[in-house]
């Protein structure tokens, strides 16, 4: 589950560990709810602390997506303030890919943050309880499901083509991803997404022709480097003019569009339109066979008989 992967990542960060209180000798970062203040596993002080919750929902194209809320709780006596902890958490979580044991990959995208006050100072018997306040961060979760289809698979062909020409890129759907993957400018992440297909008006006896649309999501640490990688992929694809599919048949590049103003995680920075063929009869003889009845000889693609 995503919660286990996220908890391990945040508790393992030295900066966060130095800011948060300790519960059972670990940084106070919890899924859904923090333990009660009276719990014996707390080490004084019991603030700052962080809890988070995940709400997943179904979407037809991406299979699942959702929201994640992260709450930072501080008091007026805390050494670290909510905005300090918030800044570090956004650095760690925003744009990070999380892959669980079932090899399902999600990316967290920071949307906005809102400050809150939970308890105002209260004086009882001459003692004033500290004010409890904090900040809530809202993240969108977007799933990157496996895009493999039937043979010949255009997604596998695009993944293999990308690996050949851009070996420094991590390819979702081809590479074995770690549980936590933060894209960098030197080693960005790319994800080829199948958007749809339609038959063409050019058909033949042996081949059914299709025109399909694909989006390439290129994610790097900075925008200029993301645009540079996007441009390099589009230009290389235009230069090659085709991509070999899993059965070694070509998918021809019909149109390539760079979309630098598009959301790289939701829409993708490259729109690629390709044309590829699927054999109508898998076991039919090659069309270039020729029979010479008088000579009692058949010439095939593999030689004479």
* Total DSSP helices: 5
What name does CATH use for the topology of the largest domain?
STM4215-like
Q: Could you say how many structural domains there are in total?
A: 2
Elements, N to C (H/E): HHEEEEEEHEEEEEHEEEEHEEEEEE
Walk across the major sheet and give the strand order.
Answer: 3-5-6-11-8-7-13
Radius of gyration (CA) equals 27 Å
What gross morphology would you assign? elongated
Helix amount: 10-25%
Low-confidence stretches: 289-293
Q: Strand share of the residues?
A: 35-45%
Class from secondary-structure proportions: alpha+beta
The number of E-state strands comes to 21
Mean pLDDT over the residues: 86
Largest sheet: 7 strands, mixed
CATH architecture of the largest domain: 2-Layer Sandwich
End-to-end CA span: 60 Å
Classified by CATH, the class of the largest domain is: Alpha Beta
How would you characterize this protein structure?
With 305 residues, the protein is α+β, with helices and mostly antiparallel strands. The chain folds into 2 domains: 2-143, STM4215-like (2-Layer Sandwich); 154-279, STM4215-like (2-Layer Sandwich), CATH 3.30.2000. The protein is built from 5 helices and 21 strands. The strands form 5 sheets. It has a 7-stranded mixed beta sheet with strand order 3-5-6-11-8-7-13, covered by helices on one side.
């Amino acid at each position: 589950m995503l919660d286990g992967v996220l908890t391990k990542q945040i508790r393992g960060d030295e900066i966060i560990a130095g800011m948060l209180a300790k519960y059972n000798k670990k940084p106070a970062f919890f899924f859904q709810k923090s333990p009660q203040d009276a719990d014996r596993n707390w080490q004084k002080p019991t603030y700052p602390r962080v809890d988070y919750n995940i709400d997943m929902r179904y979407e037809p194209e991406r299979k699942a997506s959702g929201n994640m809320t992260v709450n930072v709780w501080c008091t007026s006596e805390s050494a670290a303030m909510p905005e300090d902890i918030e800044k570090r958490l956004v650095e760690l979580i925003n744009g990070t890919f999380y892959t669980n044991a079932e090899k399902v990959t999600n990316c967290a995208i920071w949307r906005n943050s809102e400050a809150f006050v939970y308890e105002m100072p209260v004086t009882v018997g001459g003692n004033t309880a500290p004010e409890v306040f904090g900040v809530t961060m809202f993240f969108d979760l977007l799933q990157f499901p496996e895009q493999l289809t039937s043979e010949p698979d255009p997604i596998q062909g695009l993944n293999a083509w990308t690996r050949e020409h851009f070996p420094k890129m991590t390819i979702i759907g081809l590479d074995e991803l770690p549980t936590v993957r933060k894209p960098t400018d030197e080693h960005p992440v790319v994800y080829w997404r199948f958007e749809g297909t339609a038959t063409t008006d050019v058909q033949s006896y042996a081949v059914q022709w299709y025109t399909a649309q694909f989006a390439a999501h290129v994610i790097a640490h900075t925008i200029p480097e993301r645009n540079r990688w996007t441009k390099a992929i589009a230009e290389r694809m235009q230069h090659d003019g085709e991509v070999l599919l899993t059965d070694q048949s070509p998918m021809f590049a019909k149109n390539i569009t760079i979309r630098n103003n598009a959301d790289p995680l939701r829409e993708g920075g490259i729109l690629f339109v390709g044309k590829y063929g699927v054999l109508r009869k898998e076991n039919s003889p090659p069309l270039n066979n020729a029979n010479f009845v008088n000579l009692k000889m058949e010439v095939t693609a593999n030689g004479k008989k």
